[in-house]
Specification:
By secondary structure, this protein is α/β, with parallel strands linked by helices. The protein has ten helices and 13 strands. The strands form four sheets. The chain has a seven-stranded parallel beta sheet, sandwiched between helices. Strands 7-10 form a two-stranded parallel ribbon. Helix 1 crosses helix 7 and helix 8 crosses helix 10. The structure holds uridine-diphosphate-N-acetylgalactosamine.
């Protein structure tokens, strides 16, 4: 198979690309704004193109010249805070690129088996009912969430009106190897792990906890996310459908810290600060729809943390199960 992964040098993208490259030809497009070329395995099956999904000329050339069996659109400005600061800039990446891709697929990719668009639990906003089902109230509160939801609707519309085979996944809090901890809005587990690595190498570091730590999230290990992506992309019944990707279990940040401390055998130094503006207190996915495709998350939070620590402390890289 020939597979295009946009944002393929980023966190979820690179894990997906390395996994797919064992048996497929994978083309990666990434502008390396957040991703890193080092995230990608050295493989003859991976072709890397440095460029932006917002570059109409580049995207047209790519979609016109190559034929893809599957496309995973993972390129995005992932930081909600960036979308609040720069809504026009983030709109170009998080919405316009999706629209452009859909049009190019409609014109040039007649044999595409699936486009999987990655959306986010952010579309649910601050509506309090839990767990979130795909049919729960949508209340997107930021440019990021509105762009994701609008793009979702276009992706589904192209399936309904033009018979482009598409599916949408809504990621909850994904964590695991290759997540970049460089921004304060990076995934909280990557920031904790960065702290841990510094302490291990005798660099002073403290973890800043926003709020009292009782807020909870549905943290899903990237390996389970890859399984979800495979199931959604391969299943005919997933065409024109939206799926939550989580575990169906939530943990509080305080519980998370004690799980990490137990695994590491030492305390994480914590500084408490005020809750972030707009922070939601609880998030939890209802994954029953994804389960109908055969999804079964294999990693509890303890197991995922354990694997993540093994990855960080091993020089041999990480082999997915
Ligand atoms: C996640 C998504 C975001 C959006 C949102 C929708 C990630 C990385 N972000 O934001 O894109 O979809 O869900 O609801 O998946 N925290 C700390 N210290 C830190 C960093 C974070 O205490 O150094 C707290 C933070 O205030 C929050 C929790 O940890 O209560 C999780 O933060 P996050 O940034 O990992 O993810 P979240 O749920 O805010």
């Amino acid at each position: 198979m020939t597979i295009l992964v946009t944002g393929g040098a980023g966190f979820i993208g690179s894990n997906l690309v390395n996994f797919l490259a064992s048996e497929n030809q994978v083309v990666v497009i990434d502008d390396l704004s957040m991703g890193k070329i080092e995230n990608l395995d050295k493989s003859f099956n991976i072709e890397f193109i440095k460029g932006s999904v917002t570059d109409n000329i580049l995207m047209k050339k790519l979609l016109k010249e190559k034929h893809f069996d599957y496309i995973f659109h993972l390129a995005a400005i992932a930081s909600v805070a960036d979308s609040v600061e720069n809504p026009i800039k983030t709109h170009k990446v998080n919405f316009d690129s999706v629209f452009l891709l859909l049009e190019l697929i409609r014109k040039y990719q007649k044999s595409l088996q699936r486009l999987v668009f990655s959306s986010s639990a952010a579309v649910y906003g601050d509506e309090v009912s839990l767990p979130k089902k795909e049919k729960s109230v949508i209340r997107p509160l930021t440019a990021y969430a509105i762009d994701k939801f609008a793009a979702e609707r276009f992706v589904l519309m192209y399936s309904n009106l033009y018979k482009v085979p598409t599916s949408v996944v809504r990621f909850f809090n994904v964590y695991g190897p290759k997540q970049n901890p460089s921004s304060p809005y990076s995934g909280v587990i990557s920031i904790m792990m960065d702290c841990f690595l510094k302490i291990q190498t005798n660099i002073e570091a403290k973890f800043t906890l926003f709020g009292n730590g009782k807020q909870s999230r549905d943290f899903v290990f990237v390996e389970d996310v890859l399984k979800a992506l495979m199931l959604v992309s391969k299943s005919n019944s997933a065409i024109g459908e939206v799926y939550n990707v989580g575990t169906g279990h939530a943990v509080t940040l305080l519980d998370l810290i004690s799980i990490i401390e137990k695994t590491l055998g030492f305390k994480l130094p914590v500084i408490y600060e005020d809750l972030r503006l707009g922070d939601i207190s609880e998030s939890l996915a209802d994954i029953s729809k994804l389960q109908t495709l055969g999804y079964k998350p294999a990693n509890t939070i303890s197991r995922g943390i354990d694997k993540y620590i093994k990855y960080l402390t091993s020089s041999n890289g990480y082999i997915f199960e």
